Amino acid sequence: MEEETVQPQGAEGNARPPQAPAGGGISRARKIRLIVLICILLVLTVITVLYNVKLNRQEKARVQALATALAELRAVIKGLDPRLPDEVLGTSFVQADLLYRRIQELDTRNRDAERLAIALCYARGHFDQGLERFNSLPVKEIAAEIDGAVRRKAAHALDPFQALAADLAGAEIHEDGKQFLRQCGFLWGLARSITEGAVGERDKALLLCRWMALHMLPEEGDTVPADPYLAAWRSHGSAAELAWAYAELARQVGVRSKVAVLPPVESQDEWQHLVQVYPGDAEPFLVNPFLGIPFLNPASGELLSLESLAGDAEPYDALLGLAGGASAYKAEHFRAAELRTALHPYACFPRFMVFDHLLSGLPGRPQVAFDFGTLPGDEGLELWERPVEVLRQMQTRRYRELLARANRALDLVRQPRLLQLRGHYQGAGALYDTVTESLAKALAEAEVEEGAALLRETIEQAALFSAMNAYDSGQWQEAEEQLRQYLDDYPAGRWQTVARPLLAETLSQRGAEAADALWRDMPEARKLYGALRLKGLLPMAAVPGTAVSGGPSAGSDSGTPAESR
Length: 565
Description:
Number of strands: 7
Strand order of the largest sheet: 6-5-4-3-7
Order of helices and strands: HHHHHHHHEHEHEEEEHHHEHHHHHHHHHH
Helix content: 40-55%
Shape: elongated
Distance between the termini: 119 Å
Largest sheet: 5 strands, antiparallel
Radius of gyration: 37 Å
């Protein structure tokens, strides 16, 4: 039996209404707690929003600061002109270092900064550091930034030289490549120094030709073949070596040229090597680096091209009529000439094209890779085979042995000679004095005639280089004294061909009439130069400039690059 449910009674005996469950309402305490929780959540939300806003502002500020620092670093690198005074360059390098550190603080893995750092390293001559950075970059990715047509032209240029094909695949630059980069920097600084003050590419080409006449000893034969760097610091070379050296110096200051290879003339076995220059501000003209002259019409002074010499012999006949003539060339030799581009094969390799690409921010930058973008359409590049042959020979043990034997004497004067070519004339002059004293002492103590002969040869060359250094620095009186002393001490010396025109130029700078007599009595290899100089058809020397400071040099980092590979 179910129990009855008894309804609770009120005071009057009436039933009370049902009560709400105990949890059915929100107590005041709970409401307060809820409000507090909501407020906390709102505060946290506001704090989070404000924090994110602050982070966004900081990120935007960081990105903006990074972009500004990169732009400023690019601007500093763009202004690193080696012709600036030392104190200006020093300030620029300090500013660049501070900007680079600032960029690293803002972004430790910024690739743009690493790429800019390579140009900065090269400008300062810090090759080892620059190469280390370069080898850490994704070279193949950067290569994709170079126009595909340009890369195809570069690969096509090396088609005739399949032995070099294996080198095309490599991305890193190792010791051989480092030597190539050093030499490009050295020749760049030398060419800029030679052409300082020139107005336009035509004048640059003429000043380079004049420098060859006054600084390079022309010699027949090439028992130890030399590239442009080796020929420049040794200061002598065959016709082919001087043609390559001239073409490379011209390339480093933006002047296009091609080597003209002519068939042998009568009584000679070697093919002749001239250089046709293509200045952007004048018509093409032909130069002979071996003689140090441009081909011109002696009556009008008009510069002559290979084509004009091949087509019209009259101006050339007049040139032949001058003292010393030009050579035994005939019009048919010019018509048979083959034009080739004198280029180090490495200038075609992708990794060096990438390195050249990374140097694009430098003013008047050194030319590492050949500018294949200048070739119209799919035009091929007719490479001169000689640079490839010399490169192959340099990589052999036999070549290193020959070079070591040939340089036993010259190595002793290499350090001051390199200083001289880099424009550090005062330091070079002091070092020549020290070297000469040491050599004279060694000669007095020499017991073997072979060793004594080697020392005498070196002392003679040091004497000529020292006089040349005084001339290059514009110290005309000192140059005259040293050159006269050389001519007195070595009346049958090897360097007469260079010393006598140098003395004549020195006297011309001083306004001495005695220069004319010297021009009329030049050594055989300089008779035509003297005849043209007498007629006022060759340029005078520019006022010597200051040292090329802060720029890349062959002596940076780990010393002078070894010629033996």
